[in-house]
């Protein structure tokens, strides 16, 4: 059954609902992973980019000159494009022009830097691009939305096909352990112009977590909207097998925001995968790992403080 999620109304309030998500910290972790693997990508493909909260962090990386942000929901992409246009208008840094009419495609100039940003309404189970990317990323457990194992396999195959020879595929996922043990609960998020009734349901045997949302605008004249989000948890071994079968020769799995090995009962996992067999190993070293591990712990502590007060 196809369930609709990320409809126009949810896209409108998504950033408000997610206002406590530490995107800044996620971006610091990504930067550390890139440094760790000595990777300076010029082109990036972001899968399930949503309203582009992480795309904006990618834009800050000066060595990137081409970003494609892909999402199934046109409503989420429209919101992302609206945010980008506002940012460009209010920023002294960028000059911009549209490249093609009716395409969500932007060419920006920032000093000597030329940057193109393209939003694409596509399914992450089936995409291909003529120009390959040095980095493919996905954040915020978006790949768990692929609740059928064949969808995950197709996504990995498309990602492998979209990467340059030495490129990296970095993504996060909720672990199977987390999905199975999420506490079933309901609560209400009170926004300025809406109420969002949130209900968590867990089908532990199916490794499935569902969130039922009912969003009611404060305006009595407007109807409430309902949508269901479904995420499936997969064992690390399954994900590794699918990645390997899709052409990734080497994969590192981390307990998120650390450089410690990820486990099936870690909360969130980060995967770094490469088609070039030596690509990940060449840059590893125990001391380097300890340094980045410690740095991320301190970052995490500082970020937690920010959310406490
Ligand atoms: C939890 S949101 C994360 C959005 C964004 N990555 C962020 O960090 O805010 C999940 C996103 O996955 C997208 N999505 C779900 N299934 C998808 C699919 N099959 N193909 C592409 N995008 C999909 C949704 O539209 C939504 O924008």
From TrEMBL:
Record Pfam families: Methyltransf_12
GO terms for biological process, alphabetical: methylation
GO MF: methyltransferase activity
Keywords per UniProt: Methyltransferase, Transferase
SUPFAM superfamilies reported in the protein's UniProt record: S-adenosyl-L-methionine-dependent methyltransferases
Ranges of residues in domain Methyltransferase type: 45-169
Name of this chain's protein: Methyltransferase family protein
The species this protein was found in: Halanaerobium saccharolyticum
């Amino acid at each position: 059954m196809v369930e609709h999620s990320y409809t126009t109304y949810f896209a409108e309030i998504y950033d408000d609902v997610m206002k406590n998500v530490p995107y800044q910290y996620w971006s610091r972790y990504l930067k550390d992973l890139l440094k760790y693997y000595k990777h300076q990508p010029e082109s990036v493909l972001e899968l399930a980019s949503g309203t582009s909260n992480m795309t904006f962090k990618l834009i800050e990386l000066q060595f990137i000159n081409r970003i494609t942000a892909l999402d199934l929901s046109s409503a989420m992409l429209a919101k992302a494009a609206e945010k980008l246009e506002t940012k460009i208008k209010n920023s002294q840094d960028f000059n911009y022009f549209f490249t093609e009419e009716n395409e969500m495609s932007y060419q920006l100039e920032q000093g000597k830097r030329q940057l193109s940003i393209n939003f694409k309404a596509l399914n992450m189970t089936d995409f291909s691009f003529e120009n390959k990317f040095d980095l493919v990323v996905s954040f915020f457990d978006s790949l768990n939305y692929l609740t059928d194992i064949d969808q995950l396999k197709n996504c990995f195959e498309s990602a492998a096909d979209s990467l340059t020879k030495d490129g990296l595929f970095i993504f996060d996922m909720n672990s199977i352990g987390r999905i199975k043990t999420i506490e079933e609960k309901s609560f209400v998020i009170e926004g300025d112009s809406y109420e969002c009734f949130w209900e968590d349901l867990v089908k532990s045997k199916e490794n499935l977590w569902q969130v039922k949302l009912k969003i009611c605008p404060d305006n009595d004249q407007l109807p409430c909207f309902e949508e269901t989000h479904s995420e499936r948890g997969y064992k690390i071994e399954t994900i590794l097998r699918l990645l390997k079968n899709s052409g990734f020769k080497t994969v590192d799995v981390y307990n998120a925001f650390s450089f410690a090995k990820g486990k099936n009962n870690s909360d969130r996992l980060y995967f770094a995968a490469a088609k070039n067999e030596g690509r990940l190993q060449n840059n590893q070293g125990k001391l380097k790992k300890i340094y980045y591990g410690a740095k991320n712990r301190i970052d995490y502590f500082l970020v937690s403080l920010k959310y406490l007060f």
